[in-house]
UniProtKB/TrEMBL annotation:
It holds the Pfam family Phage_capsid. InterPro entries: Phage_capsid (IPR024455), Phage_capsid-like_C (IPR054612). This is Phage major capsid protein. It comes from the Bacteria. It is found in: Virion.
Length: 418
């Protein structure tokens, strides 16, 4: 088995070697040194590819252990309930597992009553399942794990501010832009003047996202036993699909009958001159960076966002002394940087093309993602699926996203039209 730690140590050694060459040749960065640094970066790219493959295999090998951890966290969620609530929640969870494996026809009347009534913890909020249509609210721990799994996919959740709510009512979120406000110098015995901040609100709602119907063969449902956690299997399948579609809308959604993505909400920071349909200049990136107010540039969430294809272009860019703008981090805790700032790879970002808003810069944490905890799962075992020896499942989740700031914390670089 490939030793991931050994690969990371190799990468760190190469990063240190490159940094030493750059730091000790600040005034005499010759073409020969540039060739050395470029060769080291190519080696780092090769090691990175090995690490990605090794981590992917380790994730596959570790799914069982991860599922055990999920079960432990679900148990912890039950422990905070009162004895009566815990007993009801345990009964609900058991009924839900039977629903997954056997379907409605395999449930007792008591189990159906439990599932139709909805999760015990939601009784006061009036949330009920949609049993008449074949769908039920997932258990609290189950839904929490699904939403937790969403973080592993896409780029937006790794930088945005994520809030979770029990219901899906529209939330009016207050906004204020203080970047243009300042105090005053007051003479002795003179009163202070007033300058109220300009407040606004942005409504963040709850759009419906589906996993689309995915199927599971009869054999997997029938062969329940040690090492087979059907709940975890279904949860991962649903999370993967929902996460990907949400990341797309949270990135490029128009804001009309769908979330407003961060690209749509951002302001123009720099537009490339004619001929830059698939390129960007170093000066463009400097202009983009300085189009964002210094108050936002000083925030912990500041950084770049772009597609991996764009990173491939940016890695080849040099400053006026021919020094590379991309710098590898020494360790996994210290991220790679571009022009001094961390960056996020988001495969839903537009690639560089005519008029594409291909690069973002700013405080990405000003973007808010709102998750509604009430996730509904449907099971289909009609002739469409049984004739193929399968059972269908469909998950519904609700959420929204928007740039929740009255200022301009994020700007984009737009490639030229021609």
């Amino acid at each position: 088995m490939i030793n991931i730690k050994a690969l990371r140590d190799q990468r760190a050694a190469k990063a240190t070697e490159a940094r030493n060459l750059l730091d000790t040749n600040t005034t005499t960065y010759t073409a020969a040194i540039g060739v050395q640094v470029d060769a080291i970066y190519e080696e780092i790219d090769r090691i990175d590819e090995q690490i990605v493959r090794a981590e992917r295999q380790a994730k596959i090998d570790g799914d069982a252990a991860a599922d055990e951890g999920n079960q432990e966290r679900q148990q912890q969620a039950l422990n905070v309930l009162s004895p009566d609530e815990r007993a009801k929640a345990v009964a609900y969870n058991a009924a839900f597992r039977n629903f997954l494996v056997r379907g409605e026809r395999g449930l007792t009347n008591d189990e159906i009553t439990l599932l139709v009534a909805g999760r015990p913890q939601n009784a006061q909020s009036g949330q009920q399942s949609n049993g008449a249509a074949g769908g039920y609210l997932v258990p609290t721990g189950w839904g929490g794990e699904l939403l937790e799994a969403l973080k592993a996919f896409g780029g937006m959740r790794s930088v945005a501010t994520v809030v979770q709510t029990a219901g899906g009512n529209s939330l009016p979120w207050p906004t204020v832009d203080e970047t243009g406000q300042e105090g005053e110098l007051v003479a002795e015995n003179q009163p202070a003047s007033a300058q109220d901040a300009s407040f606004g609100t942005i409504d963040i709602g709850a759009f419906k996202f589906s996993s689309k119907i995915f199927t599971i063969p009869f054999e997997l449902l029938q062969d329940q036993g040690p090492g087979i956690d059907i709940e975890a299997f279904i949860r991962r399948a649903a999370a993967t699909r929902i996460a990907r579609v949400q990341n797309r809308y949270y990135t490029v959604g128009t804001g009309t009958n769908q979330p407003r993505g961060i690209v749509t909400a951002a302001v123009a920071g720099k537009v490339g001159v004619a001929g830059q349909t698939a390129t960007v200049l170093t000066d463009d990136l400097v202009d983009l960076e300085h189009s964002v107010d210094p108050a936002y540039r000083a925030m912990p969430g500041v950084g770049w966002m772009f597609h991996d294809n764009t990173l491939r272009v940016l890695k080849k860019m040099k400053d006026s002394q021919n020094r590379p703008l991309w710098m590898p981090g020494y360790t996994t805790k210290e991220p790679d940087t571009f022009n001094g700032y961390k960056y996020t790879i988001n495969q839903q970002m537009p690639t560089m093309a005519a008029n594409a808003k291909s690069i973002l810069f700013g405080d990405m944490s000003q973007y808010m993602i709102r998750d509604v905890m009430a996730v509904t799962l449907f099971r289909f075992d009609d002739s469409t699926y049984t004739s193929r020896g399968q059972v269908g499942f469909l998950a519904w989740a609700r959420g929204d996203g928007d740039l929740m700031s009255a200022g301009q914390p994020v700007a984009y670089y737009q490639n030229s039209a021609s």
